[in-house]
């Protein structure tokens, strides 16, 4: 058949967060049921770099864009691929699905019948087991009379004997009944006394039993599909075998198994009704707003997240939530309980990574390319400690689309000059550059200003753009980050997909960098944050690069929060600096001239950001948008915070639905789409370039 022809060609394959996407030559071998790939077409005669068995695989077009799709093998291995356009993706997806279906059916038809067991699956030799109680008349016809058409009388099915499925179904029915009795018994226990319904061991038993039954039901669903395939000879067109969705909606939170009902509309506080009735953001002005730094005041908020109280009290909710999740499940669309939230938006968290503006400004004053790269690495590694608020791992608010955050920092010029001088003496004996002189006759303030703006530019997938600049130092940084969170059992992993670029306009240098993965560990006891993964920092112009490894703690032994790295000159492959230590404690920098420098992050001075008062902020600026949720969390009123949060999320869903119905595209305010990334609408490199062009024309 034409549909079963072997096809081949180049596709982009996602390798990892560091390497990203790479072109590879793929071959679909229909006869063998294999998807193979090579480095390029010329190496096709060599051994493949990778091979996937397509029998039992699931081919899924991605909802990220119209070019991407994934191939999930039955072994658990996954290829994430990207075609050049939607048409090519459809071509590959359809051919892969046809090949997958063909070989999946072939395996089912060629498998011998299941042999009868001499023992019961429930309890060996038990006269009360479902196998012993099964009536002789139970067969494939009686089993499938509920969900499938009755087979013609006398027609034999030679492939599979269905009595084993009947046994399993009866056993599962009994297990489900016993599990319901178990839950009921636990919930009927008194709320106080020697053994209560909130006993931690009982809650764990309740959660794990529910998760086990959900998993067994999913497995049985797959067996049913396989059996149906053997009965009918083939799967219906377009049928795929996949995990079922959780039977209990994750949008609702439960307390000890009981749903929490929200108050009726008439009982909602005025602030909630106000949140729901704010005009749709696309109807508000989407024109960029120039924020006057003089209107911003030094921030007095200091919300450290060291309180475990709410997490301890709501442990039953966490256990119930965990019972609904599966390993590897994407948590992007899962509504998490309010009490695990920290009192700030994700956009503000990105701003808090800039809490050492003195180190940021000092990068540009490095006297050599080597020194500037080392200074950037130093700033990069010191940014994560202050970005976390306290030792307890809590989750910042998910920004809603159109949400923005503005702030700035002021750094005395005298302090910046002193920091630059002391820093350069430790880094390199090479020449030191003085700070640039300001134009004569122009009154300048005695401080540098670093401005910051962030915007949530996409909801699905959740992408944030942020930009910071120091005009006086002619430097700026632009970044976009897509947060992907997954459930990993007793921890949650967050991958920060995206890229940042630091521009030093005085030197014509660009430094590209990425962000490490983050993990919330021990989510049932005392949750804590860990960073992991390898990141690279590169400057193409100078040939300097840095490789940084954030090490996760081994299962046995080892230190927490360990980080190692090195800076080298790519042309000569010479390492000019090595770094080791902990990203939240002490870092040790060893330079090529033999000097060593220690940086104690717990003693580094933190410059407070400056933020406009709430009354001067727009309705979609983070602090004003989330103010009622934040106030309720500060007061310890979890129910009220949940209600305010739910109102914001419901409004966002309504707005998204309205845009879809009216076919109105979302319009961002400060960031513009640029390929796969997002760029600030008025970056400093464009402003400086335009000013230089104007000056040249006037001369």
Contiguous runs where pLDDT drops below 50 for at least 5 residues = 112-161, 234-267, 278-284, 423-439
- Reading off the top of the CATH hierarchy, the class of the domain at 297-418 and 445-680 is best stated as Mainly Beta
Approximate strand percentage: 25-35%
Radius of gyration: 30 Å
The amount of helix comes to: 25-40%
Largest sheet entry = 13 strands, antiparallel
Q: Can you count the beta strands? A: 28
SSE-based structural type: alpha+beta
CATH names the topology of the domain at 297-418 and 445-680 as Porin
Region (Disordered): 104-137, 418-440, 637-660
Pfam family, one: Oxysterol_BP
Organism: Daphoenositta chrysoptera (varied sittella)
Protein name: Oxysterol-binding protein
What descriptive keywords fit this protein?
single chain; 699 residues; alpha+beta; PH-domain like; Porin; 13-stranded antiparallel sheet; 7-stranded antiparallel sheet; 30% helix; 25% strand
Question: What does this protein structure show overall?
Answer:
It is built from 16 helices and 28 strands. Among the domains are: 7-110, Pleckstrin-homology domain (PH domain)/Phosphotyrosine-binding domain (PTB) (PH-domain like, Roll); 297-418 and 445-680, Beta Barrel (Porin), CATH 2.40.160. The protein is globular and about 85 Å long. The model is unreliable at 112-161, 234-267, 278-284 and 423-439 (pLDDT under 50). By secondary structure, it is of the alpha+beta class. Strand 17 and strand 18 (509-513) form a beta hairpin. Strands 13, 14, 15, 16, 17, 18, 19, 20, 21, 22, 23, 24 and 25 form a 13-stranded antiparallel β-sheet that branches. It has a seven-stranded antiparallel β-sheet with strand order 4-3-2-1-7-6-5, covered by helices on one side.
């Amino acid at each position: 058949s034409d549909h079963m022809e072997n096809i081949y060609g180049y596709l982009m394959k996602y390798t990892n967060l560091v390497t990203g996407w790479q072109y590879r030559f793929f071959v679909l071998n229909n006869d063998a049921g294999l998807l193979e790939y090579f480095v390029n077409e010329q190496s096709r005669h060599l051994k493949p770099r990778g091979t996937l068995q397509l029998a039992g695989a699931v081919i899924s077009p991605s909802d990220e864009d119209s070019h991407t799709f994934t191939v999930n093998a039955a072994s658990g291995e996954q290829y994430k691929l990207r075609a050049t356009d939607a048409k090519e993706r459809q071509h590959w997806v359809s051919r892969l699905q046809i090949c997958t279906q063909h070989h999946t059916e072939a395996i089912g038809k060629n498998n011998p019948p299941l042999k009868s067991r001499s023992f019961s699956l429930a309890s060996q030799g038990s006269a009360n087991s479902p196998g012993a109680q099964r009536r002789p008349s139970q067969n494939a016809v009686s089993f499938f009379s509920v969900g499938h058409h009755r087979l013609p009388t006398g027609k034999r099915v030679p492939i599979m004997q269905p009595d084993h499925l009947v046994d399993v179904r009866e056993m599962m029915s009994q297990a489900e009944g016993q599990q319901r009795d178990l839950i009921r018994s636990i919930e009927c226990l008194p709320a106080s006394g020697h053994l209560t319904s909130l006993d931690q061991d009982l809650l764990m038993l309740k959660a794990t039993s529910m998760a086990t039954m959900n998993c067994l039901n999913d497995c049985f669903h797959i067996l049913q599909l396989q059996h149906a395939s053997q009965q009918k000879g083939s799967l219906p067109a377009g049928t795929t075998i996949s995990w079922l969705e959780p039977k209990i909606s994750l949008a609702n939170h439960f307390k000890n198994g009981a749903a929490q009902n929200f108050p009726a509309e008439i009982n909602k506080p005025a602030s909630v009704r106000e949140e729901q009735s704010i005009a749709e953001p696309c109807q508000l002005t989407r024109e960029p707003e120039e924020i006057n730094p003089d209107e911003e005041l030094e921030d007095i908020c200091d919300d450290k997240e060291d309180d475990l109280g709410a997490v301890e009290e709501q442990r039953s909710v966490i256990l119930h939530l965990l019972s609904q999740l599966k390993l590897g499940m994407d948590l992007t669309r899962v509504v998490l309980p309010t009490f695990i939230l920290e009192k700030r938006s994700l956009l503000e968290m990105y701003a808090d990574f800039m809490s050492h503006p003195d180190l940021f400004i000092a990068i540009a004053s490095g006297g050599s390319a080597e020194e500037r790269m080392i200074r950037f690495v130093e700033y990069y590694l010191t940014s994560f400690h202050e970005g976390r608020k306290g030792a307890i791992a809590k989750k910042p608010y998910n920004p809603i689309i159109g949400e923005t955050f503005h702030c700035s920092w002021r750094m005395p010029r005298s302090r910046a000059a002193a920091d630059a001088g002391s820093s350069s003496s430790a880094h390199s004996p090479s020449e030191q550059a003085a700070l640039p002189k300001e134009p004569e006759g122009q009154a300048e303030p005695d401080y540098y200003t670093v401005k910051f703006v962030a915007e949530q530019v996409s909801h699905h997938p959740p992408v944030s753009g942020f930009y910071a600049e120091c005009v006086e130092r002619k430097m700026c940084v632009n970044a976009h980050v897509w947060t992907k969170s997954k459930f990993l059992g007793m921890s949650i992993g967050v991958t920060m997909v995206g890229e940042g670029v630091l521009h030093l306009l005085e030197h014509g240098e660009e430094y590209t960098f990425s962000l490490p993965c983050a993990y919330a560990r021990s989510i049932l006891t005392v949750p804590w944050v860990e960073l992991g993964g390898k990141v690279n920092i590169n400057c193409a112009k100078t040939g300097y690069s840095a490789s940084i490894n954030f090490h996760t703690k081994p299962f046995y032994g080892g230190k927490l929060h360990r980080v190692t790295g090195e800076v080298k000159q790519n042309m000569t492959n010479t390492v000019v600096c090595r770094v080791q230590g902990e990203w939240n404690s002490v870092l040790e920098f060893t330079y090529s001239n033999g000097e060593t420098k220690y940086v104690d992050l717990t003693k580094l001075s933190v410059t407070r950001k400056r933020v406009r008062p709430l009354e001067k902020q727009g309705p979609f600026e983070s602090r004003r948008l989330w103010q009622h949720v934040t106030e309720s969390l500060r007061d310890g009123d979890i129910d009220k915070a949940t209600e305010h949060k739910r109102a914001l999320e419901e409004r966002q869903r309504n707005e998204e639905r309205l845009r879809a119905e009216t076919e109105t595209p979302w319009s961002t305010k400060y960031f513009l789409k640029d390929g796969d990334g997002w760029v600030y609408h008025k970056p400093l490199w464009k402003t400086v370039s335009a000013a230089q062009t104007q000056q040249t024309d006037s001369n």
